[in-house]
Design the sequence.
């Protein structure tokens, strides 16, 4: 009899201990996982800030589709303003100069150099926004291994879309400087579609600005790009409204702009999920112009054209086809 | 496009989702023709009495030939007559009529079954006619239009677009 009782108690105690152990193990794993996610977001947050707040120079390779270009970068933060000069080293000597959000591109075209103005956003290595909330809503982060890039030690991080409406990224972040060293974008078939990576990088201490100017070619004419005028427009249109947008995408801008080859101004809306941008163009179908319908994907860019009532809808962006289609379908024609 | 027109003719698309179809079906456009053809096909399949192709022209011609009525009182008189007639007939439909009606219903069902068997042979012919028409109303765009891509890159440039110009750009 005592043996039976003993066995019973031992079993019960073991079961209890076993349960406790499992529970502790599970909660420990859970908190390690949570901590790891939080750490990963911290690393990305640091990378977002470092790209603006550090002064550095180096060479990175930008690859998109079949094309690949080496680019020399020098970035300076003097405690107040940001300056950067990026020179394409192979082929045509394109130069991209930026001061804060203002970007000017010196683009050699035949015998001329065309000066183009752009809005600065997600310029490598500053491709992440400093506020990561929008990204946290649409992407999951996962810590990878430690790897070496451009003779620097890097932590690998995976940023994966929570759905099929955005591409995924793999980031390599410098463990010492916190800078983004390499970024690769994958489509939903897990094929690499874009890649940008330092193969040389160093910090600089000199705050001189004598380098912040384009290399002038005296034999060429410098001309401003054809005026691509755009005027901010935040009025609700009587002709259309937007119904549900794809998850995670918010409108970040709306303007009236002239589009080459169009006699009437076109409404241009920009949507973003924090990393990728999509443009929506809405215009009335002009008399005698055949409405355009179709879709395609070229490299990293998806495109969708459709008709809503008397309106021609054109959507394009560096996102999967499903996202541009959903944005096109969100436009409702008002009779 | 024509598939959608067909679906609209069959009430498979809600009217509010068919605005683009309405826009495409301008009078005398191939889409408008497709629209009436689908209705004709649908009527034949359902066994509905179809009208002759020149029905509209014949009707308009007959209306033109009608003498102009210059005595509005006549209209009033005929309305009163019609009213009396329906009052008299109310609740007095002969039994024989309802038998005739169900006989007609059986005939219609038989006709529909017969027609459904026939339509399978018609399909390839239709598809051919329809694709030929589509091309002239809408432009099927399969490439990313460069002017929109440029506008997109000017206001929302992607990371690689600062250094690499897409092949769609015209130099």
Sequence:
């Amino acid at each position: 009899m005592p043996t039976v009782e003993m066995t019973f108690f031992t079993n019960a105690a073991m079961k209890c201990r076993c349960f406790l152990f499992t529970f502790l193990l599970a909660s420990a794993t859970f908190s390690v996982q949570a901590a790891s996610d939080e750490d990963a977001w911290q690393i990305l947050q640091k990378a977002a800030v470092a790209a603006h707040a550090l002064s550095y120079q180096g060479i990175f390779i930008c690859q998109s589709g079949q094309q690949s270009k080496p680019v020399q970068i020098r970035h300076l933060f003097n405690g107040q303003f940001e300056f950067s000069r990026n020179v394409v080293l192979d082929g045509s000597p394109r130069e991209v100069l930026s001061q804060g959000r203002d970007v000017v591109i010196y683009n050699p075209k035949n015998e001329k150099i065309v000066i183009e103005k752009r809005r600065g956003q997600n310029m490598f290595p500053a491709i992440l926004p400093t506020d990561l909330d929008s990204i946290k809503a649409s992407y999951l982060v996962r810590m990878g291994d430690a790897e070496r890039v451009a003779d620097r030690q890097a932590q690998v991080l995976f940023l994966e879309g929570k759905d099929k409406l955005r591409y995924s990224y793999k980031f390599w972040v410098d463990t010492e400087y916190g800078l983004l060293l390499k970024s690769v974008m994958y489509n939903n078939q897990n094929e690499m579609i874009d890649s940008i990576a330092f193969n040389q990088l160093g910090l600089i201490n000199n705050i001189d600005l004598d380098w912040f100017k384009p290399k002038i070619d005296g034999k060429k004419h410098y001309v401003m790009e054809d005026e691509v005028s755009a005027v901010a427009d935040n009025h609700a249109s009587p002709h259309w409204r937007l119904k549900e947008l794809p998850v995670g995408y918010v409108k970040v801008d709306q303007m009236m702009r002239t589009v080459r080859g169009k006699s009437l101004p076109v409404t241009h809306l920009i949507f973003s999920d924090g990393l990728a941008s999509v443009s929506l163009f809405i215009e009335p179908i002009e008399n005698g112009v055949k409405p355009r319908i179709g879709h395609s994907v070229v490299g990293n860019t998806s495109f969708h054209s459709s008709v809503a009532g008397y309106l021609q809808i054109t959507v394009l962006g560096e996102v999967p086809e499903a996202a541009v289609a959903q944005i096109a379908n969100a436009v409702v024609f008002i009779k | 496009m024509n598939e959608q027109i067909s679906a609209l003719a069959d009430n498979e698309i809600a009217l509010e989702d068919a605005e683009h179809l309405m826009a495409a079906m301008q009078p005398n456009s191939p889409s408008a023709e497709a629209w009436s053809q689908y209705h004709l096909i649908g009527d034949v399949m359902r066994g509905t009495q179809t009208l002759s192709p020149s029905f509209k022209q014949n009707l308009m011609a007959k209306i033109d030939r009608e003498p102009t009525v210059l005595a509005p009182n006549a209209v009033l008189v005929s309305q009163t007559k019609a009213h009396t007639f329906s009052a008299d007939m109310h609740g007095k439909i002969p039994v024989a009529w309802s038998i005739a009606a169900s006989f007609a219903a059986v005939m219609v069902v038989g006709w529909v079954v017969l027609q459904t068997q026939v339509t399978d042979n018609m399909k390839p012919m239709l598809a051919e006619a329809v694709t030929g028409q589509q091309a002239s109303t809408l432009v099927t765009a399969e490439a990313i239009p460069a002017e929109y891509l440029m506008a997109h890159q000017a206001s929302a440039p992607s990371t690689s677009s600062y250094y690499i110009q897409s092949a769609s750009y015209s130099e």
Chain A has two domains: 47-224, 230-333. Chain A touches chain B through 68 residues (CB under 8 Å).
